[in-house]
Amino acid sequence: MAIFKGAGVAIVTPMKDNLDVNYDKLEELVNEQIAGGTDAIIITGTTGEASTMTEEEHLDVIRACVDFTKHRIPVIAGTGSNCTRTAVYLSQEAQKAGADGLLIVTPYYNKATQQGLIAHYTTIAESVKLPIIMYNVPGRTGCNLLPQTVAHLFQNVENIVGLKEATGNIAQASKTMDLTDGKLDMYSGEDGIILPLLAIGALGVISVWSNVAPADVHNLCQSFFDGDLKTARQLQRKGLSLVDALFSEVNPIPVKKALNLMGKEAGSLRPPLCEMSKEGTQKLEAAMKEYGIL
C-alpha cells in the first residue's frame, strides 16, 4: 500500500528573525495544510532548507512535525545525504521519531555511479523498516537515477517503494514506469507537469505549489482519480503562471516570499539563500493576484 496518494506538500521551514526554526509557525502551517486537504506532509526536504540544518536540528524539525501532525495524515521525512552513513543515521532517527516514510535524495556533489547508487539506497533501506521514496532531481544534485537503476532497486529491495520524479523528462519517467510494470509509487516533483505524470501512472505530487494553494493541488489529483479530466486539466492550467513564478528563482526563495506576502510569516532564508529580487517579487505578486491568493 502506498504511503500516500494525491498531493503531498514539500513544506517550508519557517524561521524567526534570528534564523532559528519557528516551531509555532510550523505547527500553524501543518494545521493549515491538513485543513486544506493536503494528503501528506513532506518535511526537511529541499523546500524545507534541510541542507542548512545541523543533524540534530534536522531531526528536531522531523520530531516536531510528527508531533504537530498527530497521525492525521502521513509524515514523510527527508533524510537523504551525500554521505551514506549520515543518511542511515538520519533515517534511523526519523523512524524512531514516528515518521511514516522517508524521502531519500540521490547523493549530491559526489556524482555516484549507478552501481554506487544501488549500494547507497540498499544500505539505507536495510537499516530501517520504513518505506522509502527515492528522489531524483539531477538539476540540483548532478546525479541522475536512471530508469534501470530505479527498477533494480524497486524489484530487489522490499521497502524501496517509490520515486519522486523531478527530472522534468516525461520520456524518462515513462521508461521508469514501464520497467517497473506500472507498480512503482511515482510522485511528480514538478508542479507544472502533475497531470502528465498522473496520466502515465503516478500516484500524485510532492508539491511546492501546495504551500500556497493546498486545496487546488489536492483537487487536481482527486479530480484525475475520479475520472474528471476536465477539472484536472483546468486546475493544472490555472496553476501554470503561479508555478512559473514560484520557480523563477531558486526554490524555496519564491515560495517563502509568497507565504510572507500572504501574511503567513514564514520568515527569511538561511544563507547562502537570500531574499527574492525586486523584479522577481513583482512577477510573483502579479501571478499571485491573477491566481487569487493575494
Note the topology:
Elements: E1 6-10, H1 23-35, E2 40-43, H2 55-69, E3 75-78, H3 84-97, E4 101-105, H4 114-126, E5 132-136, H5 138-141, H6 147-156, E6 160-165, H7 170-179, E7 185-188, H8 194-199, E8 204-207, H9 214-225, H10 229-246, H11 253-261, H12 278-291
Parallel strand pairs: 1-2, 1-8, 2-3, 3-4, 4-5, 5-6, 6-7, 7-8
Task: For this entry, give a set of tags.
294 residues; alpha/beta
Question: Please, could you describe this protein's structure?
Answer:
By secondary structure, the protein is an alpha/beta fold. The protein has helices at 23-35, 55-69, 84-97, 114-126, 138-141, 147-156, 170-179, 194-199, 214-225, 229-246, 253-261, 278-291, and strands at residues 6-10, 40-43, 75-78, 101-105, 132-136, 160-165, 185-188, 204-207. The protein has an 8-stranded parallel beta barrel, surrounded by 6 helices. α1 packs across α2, α3 (84-97) packs parallel to α4 and α11 (253-261) packs across α12. The longest helix is centred in the C-terminal third of the chain and has 18 residues, at 229-246.
Taken in chain order, the helices and strands follow as EHEHEHEHEHHEHEHEHHHH
Please give the count of helices. Answer: 12
Largest sheet, strands/sense/barrel: 8 strands, parallel, barrel
Q: Tell me the Rg in angstroms.
A: 18 Å
- Sheet-strand content, in percent, reads 5-15%
What class do helices, strands and sheet pairing give?
Answer: alpha/beta
> What's the overall average pLDDT, rounded?
98
Give helix % range.
40-55%
Large-scale geometry: globular
**Spatial arrangement of strands, main beta sheet:** 1-2-3-4-5-6-7-8
Q: N- to C-terminal separation?
A: 38 Å
Low-confidence stretches: none
Q: Count of DSSP E strands?
A: 8
